[in-house]
Each structure stands twice: as structure tokens, then as C-alpha cells.
Write a structure and sequence with these properties.
CATH class of the largest domain: Alpha Beta
Oligomer: single chain
Number of strands: 6
Order of helices and strands: HHHHHHEHEEEHEHEHHH
Strand content: 5-15%
Structural class: alpha/beta
Largest sheet: 6 strands, mixed
Number of helices: 12
Shape: elongated
Length: 274
């Protein structure tokens, strides 16, 4: 389905089909057209497809995670041309400030953030040829990649991300990420981050029952309230996983997983404000 057909859809149906809002799509087109103009000045053969169709091709890949072969067949291109186009679009958009994340440095500043929530999610991958145990998740009972996201409770924006293999414990990934938070910012986490309070005193974690005893009513009430607060992170992760490339089994080289995950997070942030 090419842009000439899709542009006739209502805003709601456009978002369902493409995965992003019409205004976000138009913003991306303007960014890509500027880069295409720079490319033309340097010289080279013009592309056979409109920028809009090439962008749709990239979102068919991210949103529906169709194979390069099937997408290329739809647009009358070779598989290699399809791959190069999608990669070109991803690389340009991730470098644009409108679709990049604030980053960990934002967590060290005390000018806006009050409460942040950190959680990890897993994406299944194909069984690696080497070091299979490294990627095997005991929780998911399959090979996975793990992504950690930190979200601002007030604005619901994603501040930063980090990535690890499926075997890595949530807290271990946090330590590896070298995430530092300003002492005045409260951090809310689940039980997978036990020990974080030693690194960041202003941390709220679920109460754990000690051996041979049960939780008190106040502890249970605390855990229930904390679970309600943490549901924001779960909702953000659900929004990210509307894109099948991070929800379905990841077939590609693992080194570009982080770039694609961050791009989707950047799109999520942009659409919160626009």
C-alpha cells in the first residue's frame, strides 16, 4: 500500500496502519527531504520512489516486521535496495534531535525531574550460533535481548535506555549502564532492583517478606501502591512494543537492536508532545 492510497485514510486509521501519527510522518518526511537535497547537490542517481513511499517502507519493517523480500516485492525494488533504504532512514532519524532521547545526563540534573521509574523488558531473538547460555533468559525460557528504560513519572517521557543479554539480571544491567541519578530525584523500581538503595538512597522498592514470616498489612498496602505507580512503565513498554520489530522474535544482527529500540522510544517521546 503506497502513500497515494494511505494519505486518504483518516488520522486514526493512518496511525493504526503506519504506527505513527500523520504529523509525525510529515515531520520525518521534511527531515528526509533536507538530507535528500544534500545528497543531490553532491551528485548521484535519484531514487525511483518518493520519500513518502520510502518512509512507509521503513515503517512496514519496524511496525509489521515483514521480511526485506516481501517489502521489496511490494515496492518493486531488490532486497538489497530495500535494506539500504531502511538503513538510510533509520540512521538519519536517530541522529535528529527531535527523535533522540534526553540521555543519562538528564538524570543528574535537579531542574525538572522529581520521580523516575526504571524497568527492564525482554525481546526474543533467534538462537545464537555461539554463546547461547549468555542470551538464555531463565524467566522467559528462551534466548532474549534485555532493554532497560527509565521514564519520568510526570511527563511520561523516556529519559534513557540501556541494553544487555537475556541472562543478565535487571540490577546487573543497571550497574552495567552506569546510570547515576541526582540525590533529590526519587527512583521507583520493582523487586528485581534489590540493592539499588545502596547506590541511590532515594529509592522506593517493594517490601520483601523475611524467611518464615509474612508481610504485614502496611507492607502489603505499600507494595500495592508501588505496583500502581510502576504500571506507568508497563504502559510505556506496551506502547513501544506496538512495533513488532521489538515485540516479535528479532531476526537481524543484534548490534542494530539498540538503535531501532531507541528510535522507537524517540518517536514515542515526540508524539507525547505533538
Amino acid at each position: 500500500m503506497k502513500y497515494k492510497e494511505i494519505e486518504k485514510l483518516s488520522r486514526k486509521k493512518f496511525r493504526i496502519k503506519v504506527g505513527i501519527k500523520v504529523d509525525t510522518f510529515k515531520k520525518m518526511v521534511s527531515i528526509l527531504k533536507k538530507k535528500e537535497l544534500e545528497k543531490k547537490i553532491k551528485g548521484g542517481k535519484p531514487h525511483s520512489l518518493l520519500i513518502e513511499d520510502r518512509l512507509l517502507m521503513a515503517f512496514e519493517y519496524l511496525r509489521e516486521y515483514r521480511t526485506y523480500f516481501h517489502i521489496a516485492s511490494t515496492y518493486g525494488l531488490s532486497e538489497s535496495a530495500c535494506y539500504r533504504n531502511i538503513r538510510w532512514i533509520e540512521d538519519i532519524l536517530i541522529k535528529n534531535k527531535d527523535f533522540s532521547l534526553p540521555g543519562k545526563k538528564e538524570l543528574l540534573q535537579n531542574n525538572r525531574l522529581k520521580v523516575v521509574l526504571t524497568d527492564a523488558t525482554e525481546s526474543p531473538i533467534e538462537r545464537p550460533k555461539k554463546k547461547q547460555k549468555k542470551f538464555y533468559s531463565g524467566k522467559k525460557k528462551r534466548h532474549t535481548l534485555k532493554a532497560q528504560i527509565t521514564v519520568d513519572k510526570e511527563s511520561k517521557k523516556i529519559i534513557s535506555t540501556d541494553f544487555g543479554n537475556g541472562k543478565m539480571h535487571d540490577f546487573k544491567l543497571y550497574q552495567k549502564s552506569n546510570t547515576a541519578i541526582h540525590p533529590d530525584i526519587k527512583s521507583i523500581n520493582d523487586s528485581g532492583y534489590q540493592g539499588l538503595q545502596k547506590m541511590h538512597a532515594n529509592t522506593e522498592l517493594p517490601k520483601k517478606k523475611s524467611k518464615g514470616s509474612s508481610l504485614s498489612k502496611s507492607d502489603k498496602a505499600h507494595n500495592k501502591e508501588l505496583s500502581s505507580k510502576r504500571s506507568l512503565n508497563e504502559n510505556v513498554i506496551a506502547s513501544i512494543k506496538r512495533f513488532k520489530i521489538v515485540a516479535d522474535r528479532y531476526r537481524n544482527r543484534r548490534r542494530r537492536f539498540g538503535l531501532r529500540f531507541n528510535l522507537i522510544c524517540g518517536i514515542y517521546n515526540w508524539e507525547l508532545e505533538n
